[in-house]
Each structure stands twice: as structure tokens, then as C-alpha cells.
Specification:
Layout: H1 19-23, E1 32-36, H2 41-52, E2 56-61, H3 64-70, E3 77-81, H4 87-100, E4 106-109, E5 120-121, E6 125-126, H5 127-149, E7 154-158, H6 181-203, E8 209-214, H7 228-233, H8 251-263, E9 273-276, E10 279-280, E11 283-284, E12 295-296, H9 302-316
Parallel strand pairs: 1-2, 1-4, 2-3, 4-7, 7-8, 8-9, 11-12
Antiparallel strand pairs: 5-6, 9-10
Helix pairs in contact: 2-8, 4-5, 5-6, 6-9
Length: 323
């Protein structure tokens, strides 16, 4: 992937496209997908969209009982326990998936946390980086043999426009010198985008292509760590919790870009790209407002992506992907 590839393709879909729009007429029979967070918010919409098109969907869940209840009316769906904050749990889930299937066509990394209070995970890692990046990184590495065994697997990673808040803080990625919940979120979302760049670079010879994306502004359970007052002050909702912010999407619209990334023939032979509004995003200038869209160049830089990959392998002990 080069920066010249990071420009819109002229997709027939847009910011207002829905799950139904991008999935109409698709037959995913015989396809196996893993959807993290696939039982609430955008993950639930993703699971429903894939299953309705015939895919077999595996949903790793931190709360498997709640997941099974949410998915009881979805055919072709299996729930297994997994906590992204616990890498032993991630490895156990990957082993269970590997025992149940011989290939994996889609890995949808939808689960995540946002703007959480300071939490330490594992050996003292900052919690948002640990859950949003290290957990998904480990899962993808452990499942890589299944992805490589498929005929053209895709890995789709939910990033966010929040990546514009900061590059990777190499000098203090775990906020040892003072915690800022929004910078921590921004760093984790930059990590998601860079993860897709390097995974694609390593996987393309095996037919494994990776994409990151901004789903848009949507009120889901992702905001659960924010108070109602915080959301009111940001102009997202009114005092009753009703969405009033400009440019907000429905969950179905927010899911569309990820499902487009997973299925669109326009992306055949491509990868390592950051997507938004069911198309490839343009590169945005450093001073541009977050809401104007696009991706910062630092979030798709191949050298930075390779550096983060090495840091992540060393931190997590994940099984390295053959070069």
C-alpha cells in the first residue's frame, strides 16, 4: 500500500448506505466469519448482516450468556468465551476456533472501548491500547493459519476518526506520566489503522488482505463509560439521551462500511487501506478538523506500522506471522 492508493474509488455507496444496501444480493454460504463484539452495537448489526447472507458466524464474547441471549434469533451463529483484555483468554478462543474450522474467510474486529477511566491490564498496559489493539492483534496472529488457508480472506478492523487525536506515543504509550482518556483512545485507534497496514503487508502473498475503517459517529454501547452530561456537552444527545448531533448515523449505517470492506469486489487486490462512508478515505492534512473526514498520513505509514508490529509481538508474545 502506498499513499497514492489511499484515495476514494467511486463506490456506489455512501455515508447514508445501510447494512441492507451493501449486502443486497450477496450469498455468503460456505463462508466462516469471526466477529468480535458481535452481540451488541455495531458488532450485532455486523453479525446479523453476515448471517442473513448465509455466513457461519463465530462470536467471541466477554459475556457469553448475554451474547447468546442477544443472538438467539440469529441462525448460523456460535458464541464462545473470550476477553480481549486477557491474552490467555484470547489464545484459548483462537484454539477453540481452530479446532472447529479449517479456514477463516473473515475476521471482523468490531469490539472496543472508548474514553475509559484509567485502567491497567496485564503487566500494567494502558487499558484502551490493550483491549482495542493488543487483544485483536493477538487474536489475528493466532488465527492467521486459518486466514491463510482461505481463498482470499479479509481482516476488517474498526478504527475511528479519533485516530486524529494522536500518533503512537512512542515515548510513553502506556501513559505512565499522566493519563488522558481521549489521547489514550486516539492512540489505540491509530494503532488499529497501523495494524491493518502491516498485517496486509505480511499477509498479501497468502491472499490475506486487511483494512481499517471509521464507521462514522453513532451512539451505541461504546459510549457506556461517558456520563450523559459529557455527551450533552459535546452536542451528541439531549437531556433525554436522544441523538441530536449533526452527521450521526444509525447503527445500520455505521455497520455498512465494515460489511462493504468485507465483501466489496472493488477492494479485490487491495489492502492496507483506511475506509470511511463505504469508500477509501482520502488523506487529511494535520490541522483538519476530525469531523471533516479522511485519514492522517501517520496512521497509514508503513514504517510506523512495522515498528508498532514489532512492539506488539514483543509485548504480547503473539505467534509471529511468517514473512
Amino acid at each position: 500500500m502506498t499513499t497514492t492508493d489511499q484515495q476514494p474509488l467511486g463506490s456506489p455507496f455512501s455515508a447514508i448506505s445501510t447494512t441492507e444496501d451493501v449486502m443486497v444480493g450477496l450469498d455468503l454460504s460456505g463462508t466462516t466469519a469471526v466477529v468480535t463484539g458481535g452481540y451488541s452495537g455495531l458488532g450485532l448489526e455486523t453479525t446479523r448482516g453476515l448471517a442473513a447472507s448465509g455466513a457461519q458466524v463465530i462470536v467471541p464474547a466477554r459475556r457469553p450468556g448475554m451474547a447468546r441471549a442477544a443472538l438467539e434469533d440469529v441462525d448460523g451463529c456460535e458464541v464462545i468465551p473470550m476477553d480481549l483484555a486477557d491474552l490467555d483468554s484470547v489464545r484459548a478462543a483462537a484454539a477453540r476456533i481452530s479446532d472447529s474450522t479449517n479456514r477463516l474467510d473473515l475476521l471482523m474486529a468490531v469490539a472496543g472501548v472508548m474514553a475509559t477511566p484509567e485502567r491497567r491490564v496485564g503487566p500494567g498496559w494502558e487499558g484502551q491500547l490493550a483491549v482495542n489493539h493488543f487483544g485483536h492483534f493477538t487474536l489475528a496472529c493466532e488465527l492467521y493459519p486459518l486466514l491463510a488457508a482461505a481463498d482470499g480472506a479479509r481482516v476488517v478492523i474498526n478504527s475511528s476518526a479519533g485516530h486524529t487525536l494522536t500518533d503512537i506515543r512512542w515515548y510513553d504509550p502506556h501513559f505512565r506520566t499522566g493519563y488522558d482518556k481521549w489521547l489514550a483512545y486516539g492512540q489505540a485507534k491509530t494503532a488499529n489503522a497501523l495494524f491493518a497496514v502491516q498485517l496486509d503487508a505480511l499477509g498479501r502473498d497468502d491472499g490475506v488482505r486487511a483494512f481499517s475503517l471509521h464507521p462514522g459517529k453513532i451512539i451505541t454501547g461504546l459510549q457506556r463509560e461517558m456520563t450523559l452530561q459529557e455527551q450533552i456537552e459535546r452536542g451528541w444527545v439531549d437531556e433525554h439521551g436522544n441523538v441530536i448531533g449533526a452527521g450521526f448515523k444509525t447503527p445500520s449505517q455505521g455497520t455498512a462500511t465494515g460489511l462493504w470492506a468485507a465483501t466489496s469486489p472493488l477492494l479485490d487486490g487491495r489492502g492496507g487501506l483506511y475506509l470511511e462512508d463505504c469508500d477509501v478515505a482520502r488523506i487529511s492534512a494535520p490541522a483538519e478538523p476530525m469531523d471533516d473526514g479522511g485519514v492522517r498520513e501517520y496512521a497509514i505509514d508503513p514504517d510506523t506500522a512495522a515498528r508498532l508490529w514489532e512492539l506488539s509481538v514483543a509485548a504480547t508474545g503473539a505467534t509471529p506471522i511468517p514473512r
